[in-house]
Amino acid sequence: MKSILSAFSFFILVLFFASCQSGPDDTLDPGNPGGGGTTTSDSTRLKMIIGIDTAFANGIDTSDKYLFQYDASKRLTFIDIYEYEPGQAGVQYHDNEQRFYNGTDTLPYKVVYYVDDHPTLDDIDTVYLTYQNGVIIKDSSISVQGAGNPVRYISVRKYKLLHGMLINANIYSLVGSSLVLTDSITSGQTYLNNNLVHQQDTLFGSGGNEIWDITRAYDNHPSPLQRISLPFPIYNYGFHLAENSFLQFAKSVNNETVTQYLDDGVPDYQENNLIQYKANGYPSIYRLGIPGFTDKIFFTYQE
User: Fold this and answer.
1) Residue 234's beta-bridge partner residues?
2) Burial classification of residue 175, based on how many CB atoms lie within 10 Å of its CB (0-12 exposed, 13-18 middle, 19 or more buried)
C-alpha cells in the first residue's frame, strides 16, 4: 500500500476522532485528544484507526483511515480502507478487505481484498487460508483485475516449522499448468512473555539473498491488534497484508515501543514510539518514532 500505515512496519493505536479531515490537538493530553475530557468507553474492539501527518494543517493532514465492522459473534468481517495524500484534499485510494467464516469458526477460511491501484478496475485478490493449531500453514491467492475478468496470477505460500522456532516459507507461482517455487524465506524467532522480541529472516529469491534482523521491545499494556490480525507464522509475510502489515501481526500481546532493524548485518534504522493509553490500559494514540516521520495514529473503539 501507499500509506503511512504501510510504512509504519506494524503497530498503530486509537481514540475517537470525529472526521478523517479534521485534525486533533497535537498534545498528548490524558483525555480525548480532540478535547472534552477523559474517554469513558472501555471496549477493546477497534472501530477506527486514523493516521495524521502533523506536518500539515488541519483538513489536509490525514494519511489513512481504517473502519472495522464485525458480525453478531464479534468476528471481524469487513475493513474499509481510505488512503490520502497529506497536503491534498480528497481520497487517493479506497481499498477494502472482506473476511468469510465457516459456521462458528473464529478464523476466516477466505479473505477477499479489493485494491484500488488501477485507474478503472480494482485488483481483486481472493485468498484461501489453511490452519494448523490456529496458525496459517498455507495461503492460496487468485488475482483478477476487475470482477469477471480472466485470472492474472495464482500464488501459493506454504509455512513449515523446521525445529524450535525456526520457520520456513516457500512461495510458488503458477507458470503454465505447474506451480513453480519462486522465493523462500527462513525465519528464526525468539519470544518473551508471549511477545516476539527477536527475529532474523533470510530471504532467498531471484533478486539474490537478503537477511533482516529485527529486535523489539514492548510495553506492559494489551494490544487491540492481536484480535483482528491474521495468524501468519512470519511477520510481514503473507499476501496483501504484507503491504498492510500491522493487520497481519498476531504474535505479540503487548504494544511495540522500540524496534531496531539490521539489513544484511548493517544498522538500518530504529523506531522509538510514544504511546498514550486509555483508562482500561489500551492504547489511544501512537506517536510514530520512525526517522523522518511526523505522524500520529489515533484509535477509536467500539462502544
Assistant:
1) none
2) exposed
pLDDT digits (tens, 9 = 90+) for 44-54: 899 999 988 88
Give the HSE-up count for residue 32: Cα atoms under 13 Å, Cβ half-sphere: 14
Using alpha carbons, select from 79, 86, 80 the residue that is nearest to residue 23: 86
The residue among 74 and 227 whose pLDDT is bigger is 74
Contact 62, 5 (CB under 8 A): no
Biggest alpha carbon distance in the chain? 62
Q: Which residues pair with 52 in a beta bridge?
A: 62, 296
Contacts of 57 (CB under 8 A, 6+ apart): 23
The pTM of the full predicted model, rounded to 2 decimals, is 0.78
Q: What are 188-235's pLDDT values in tens digits?
A: 889 899 888 998 888 886 666 778 888 999 999 998 888 888 888 876
CA distances from 209 to 98, 181, 184, 204, 294 (A): 34, 15, 10, 5, 32
